[in-house]
């Protein structure tokens, strides 16, 4: 059975896909409750900074440092340099990654800075990305700066 | 005489201050032209992701990888983990920093990843931050995740 928080992140990814966007989703969990969710907004808002994790954190709003410390950020895909840097800025304690086969951010660096990182290698997350990249390789490359 | 692009970044910082916000500004320059400018939006938009550099990049819009590569990002203050990560994601070639006395992001790491970095140690940038931090230390701490 899938982690319910990763299920919620996947639901965000599917919502983005249905809107014509990039299928990556994210949720922020504090004390067992989802306090923010979001998805990639490159297509929908023409945004270059609202990756799923950033949109999720933005939707969670301004939080206290003590809340970030005990938070877990779920993302359907391994966080890139930008999103990983945001985890480090706010001292988010843990990141749960749907998959890192399609793309892998600076996971070792993030761990070396004290963040707990778990990779689920969820087949549904992998499939979402592989189908998308096959269909829209240019959009995907734009999203990761290539 | 001040660098005209840093002057533009400082103008953004002063605009933010006049709006009741955090006085950090940024501009993105490509081929000698400003293609985006912005300032911290924590107060103005209740944003936790729109640091000055992020707001600037968002305002510049969706750019090609080849444009980011030849771009220079100016910021009145040393970019934090989030903004530095964004520089790395997009492969922005150069960062010009107003000052790093008040706060220093992961400059060595950014340089080790191939980004050119120049610190101007501009007294006006230092003064802006020192006055602000003295007046609103809690807001400042929130902005850097402390």
From TrEMBL, chains A, B:
Keywords: Hydrolase. Signal peptide: none annotated. Residues 1-117 form the CMP/dCMP-type deaminase domain. InterPro entries: CMP_dCMP_dom, Cytidine_deaminase-like. It comes from the Bacteria. Its EC number is 3.5.4.33. GO terms for molecular function: tRNA-specific adenosine-34 deaminase activity. PANTHER family: CYTOSINE DEAMINASE (PTHR11079:SF190), CYTOSINE DEAMINASE FAMILY MEMBER (PTHR11079). This is Nucleoside deaminase. It comes from Rheinheimera marina.
